Amino acid sequence: MGRKWNNIKEKKAAKDANTSRVYSKFALEIYVAAKQGEPDPESNQALKFVLERAKTYNVPRNIIDRAIEKAKGGGEESYDTLRYEGFGPNGSMVIVDALTNNVNRTASNVRAAFGKNGGNMGVSGSVAYMFDSTAVFGLEGKTADEVLEILMENDLDVRDILEEEETVIIYAEPDQFHAVQAALKEAGITEFSVAELTMLAQNDVTLSTDAQEQFENLIDVLEDLEDVQRVYHNVELGE
């Protein structure tokens, strides 16, 4: 799974380059999670998960607090959670997760992004079956063996643990997210370079230089869309 971790790092670096976009998307996700349940992460697992992920992106506290306060105030804003699936250049696969208050607008914008960048929308289920929902953690300061020992002491059997350069990467089942994180925190590990649920492709593909350039344009356009929260794909990104 090491190559997939490189894809995660690549996407995260690209998002970090545009912090205002990242922060606005997190603000909306936090607002929706807080509004759909209690505005307290200790009793709202969805909100707790979003806040943990926001921490790895260094989302400022004032943005988080403002989103939660907005949710406490109620309001008539209603958002739908949507997932789109499609194909990029040379049959590459893409999954797009969105939060929107205008389904028609979002569908039109996502469809246009695919169509103008060498891709096309697929029907529900046409791509997702080639991806696995996965909890991923990245941390430093420990070896893979040390992390494995911590997890074993807590009776946690995860999918895989890898060590790349100075980073240990843990791949776990989605429903293990909070248990794994709690075990690591109890062992004194509180900082994570990545702590999120993602969709990992079962098999990555490599594109030609021209196709990859077109594919990266597609991903950039999708991620720039106001309603799009997350984009997953099966392309092995070049250097």
From TrEMBL:
Residues forming coiled coils: none
Pfam families: TACO1_YebC_N, Transcrip_reg
Residues covered by the TACO1/YebC-like second and third domain: 79-235
Keyword annotations of the record: Cytoplasm, DNA-binding, Transcription, Transcription regulation
SUPFAM superfamilies named in the record: YebC-like
GO cellular component: cytosol
Entry's Gene Ontology BP terms: regulation of DNA-templated transcription
GO molecular function, one term: DNA binding
Domain of life: Bacteria
Compartment annotation: Cytoplasm
Positions of the TACO1/YebC-like N-terminal domain: 3-74
HAMAP family: Transcrip_reg_TACO1, Transcrip_reg_TACO1_YeeN
Family: Belongs to the TACO1 family. YeeN subfamily.
Name this protein carries in UniProt: Probable transcriptional regulatory protein GJU40_18975
